[in-house]
């Protein structure tokens, strides 16, 4: 008998499991709206032209070798990433009080940041929105933090439960960590307005709550890199501390390259130096140092003004296609006279729509229409095209009538 014979079968990941089910379905009309990865109008994965260009430059540069990066990653990449999220003119950067380390995409940045907090910060409780990206509670728990939830989404209005959010953060213990989605909240597509962000900031600063921003969609929500970073910049502008986990998976289409950054904004440069030294202690036994290729692509693009500009145009095109999918789906449901108010489809932003469909309806749509989404009714707008929208609208119509 195997020494492993008693090992139990683990459940499929709730998001990646959707793709497993999709792959098993032989139907030619099947549609996968589960995973948050951008697809072209033809339903194909997209590698940005500017990324291809950067890769060509890298390949043709004979001075490039495959040596290990430092524990903290590529220095250029780190500096440029901090400027991208905090803004080129950020006082915190000018004053050298930001510690930035290259990590394995958004997930790795969250993982390193939360283990750093678990080891070095006095308060272990992290408040995360209800609902949130399914991996958040797992990442934070395994890092040694204690997860609690704050109210975020109101199913009645399919909008923000701002009152509940303020109430829950008000009753959080002094110093607690609060996870905030910088923009394009996943899975709801519902973000606070700038005025609401300001109220959240005031409340959090008055209670000494520590903001930990998850920025997985900068530029992908509105099409503007600056507009999508406003929430983070609001908090950094007041001179207080915050953490930010950045991912280049969506906005540069570098999903599988696993490239991201963790920044910790401190109040002085000597604290930032000590923070960085502790980050190295977290990273070294975890994976020693990060991979070189993806970070080199990002650094190449960010430091060349022409390529940077080209990136912003390709990024906006992706964001615009998603926004147009929202409009087309909304119109298709109106056309069919599908019962209910579907205006949240055009109000929500980012990659996902939180449809409001329940798990029975989700199951029905997979079985009868071969359309796959997460059980909470979240659909990836980036996986839709003009070709698949009528089919999806038919399915939603059938599911709710
Ligand atoms: N955070 C949120 C809210 C996400 O939606 C995602 C990806 O779906 C991530 C973080 C991390 O993604 P990655 O590790 O691929 O950068």
Q: Can you give me a brief rundown of this structure?
A:
The protein is α/β, with parallel strands linked by helices and 401 residues long. It is built from 15 helices and 13 strands.
Assign the structural class, choosing from mainly alpha, mainly beta, alpha/beta, alpha+beta, or little secondary structure: alpha/beta
Percent range of helical residues: 40-55%
Low-pLDDT stretches: none
In total, the number of strands is 13
- Strand fraction band? 5-15%
Largest sheet: spatial strand order = 2-10-9-8-7-3-4
Cα(first) to Cα(last) distance is: 53 Å
Overall pLDDT, averaged? 96
- Main sheet specs: 7 strands, mixed
User: Which ligands, by name, code or SMILES, are bound?
Assistant: pyridoxal-5'-phosphate
Q: What would you report as the Rg, rounded to the nearest angstrom?
A: 21 Å
So how many helices? 15
Element-by-element helix/strand order: HEHHHEHEHEEEHEHEHEEHHHHEHEEH
EC number: 2.6.1.1
Catalytic activity: L-aspartate + 2-oxoglutarate = oxaloacetate + L-glutamate
Cofactor: pyridoxal 5'-phosphate
Keywords: Aminotransferase, Pyridoxal phosphate, Transferase
């Amino acid at each position: 008998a195997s020494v492993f014979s008693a090992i139990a079968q683990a459940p499929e990941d709730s998001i990646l499991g959707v793709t497993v089910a999709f792959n098993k379905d032989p139907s030619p009309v099947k549609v996968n709206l589960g995973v948050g990865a951008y697809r072209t109008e033809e339903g194909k994965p997209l590698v940005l032209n500017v990324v291809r260009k950067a890769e060509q430059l890298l390949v043709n540069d004979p001075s490039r070798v495959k040596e290990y990066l430092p524990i903290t990653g590529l220095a250029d990449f780190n500096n440029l990433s901090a400027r991208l999220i905090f803004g080129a003119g950020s006082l915190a950067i000018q004053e050298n009080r930001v510690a930035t380390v290259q990590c394995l995409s958004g997930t790795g940045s969250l993982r390193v940041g939360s283990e750093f907090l678990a080891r070095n910060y006095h308060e272990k409780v992290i408040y995360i929105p209800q609902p949130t990206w399914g991996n958040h509670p797992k990442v934070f728990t395994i890092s040694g933090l204690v997860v609690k939830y704050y109210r975020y989404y109101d199913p009645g209005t399919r909008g923000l439960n701002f009152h509940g959010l303020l109430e829950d953060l008000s009753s959080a213990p002094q110093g607690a960590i609060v996870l905030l989605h910088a923009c394009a909240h996943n899975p709801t597509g519902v973000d606070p307005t700038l005025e609401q962000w300001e109220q959240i900031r005031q409340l959090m600063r008055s209670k000494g709550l520590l903001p930990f921003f998850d920025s997985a969609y900068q530029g992908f929500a509105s099409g503007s890199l600056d507009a999508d970073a406003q929430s983070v910049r609001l908090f950094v502008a007041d001179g207080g501390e915050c953490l930010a986990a950045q991912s280049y998976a969506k906005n540069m289409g570098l999903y599988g390259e696993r490239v991201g950054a963790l920044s910790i904004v401190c109040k002085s440069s000597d604290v930032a130096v000590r923070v960085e030294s502790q980050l190295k202690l977290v990273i070294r036994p975890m994976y020693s140092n990060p991979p070189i290729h993806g970070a080199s692509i990002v650094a190449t693009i960010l430091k060349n003004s022409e390529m940077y500009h080209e990136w912003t145009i390709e990024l906006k095109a992706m964001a615009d296609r998603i926004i147009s999918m929202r409009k087309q789906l909304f119109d298709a449901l109106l056309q069919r006279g599908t019962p209910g108010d579907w205006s949240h489809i055009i109000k929500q932003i980012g990659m996902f729509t939180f449809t409001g469909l329940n798990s029975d309806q989700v199951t029905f749509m997979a079985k009868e229409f071969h359309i796959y989404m997460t059980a909470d009714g979240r659909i990836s707008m980036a996986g839709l095209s003009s070709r698949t929208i009528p089919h999806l609208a038919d399915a939603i119509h059938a599911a709710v009538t």
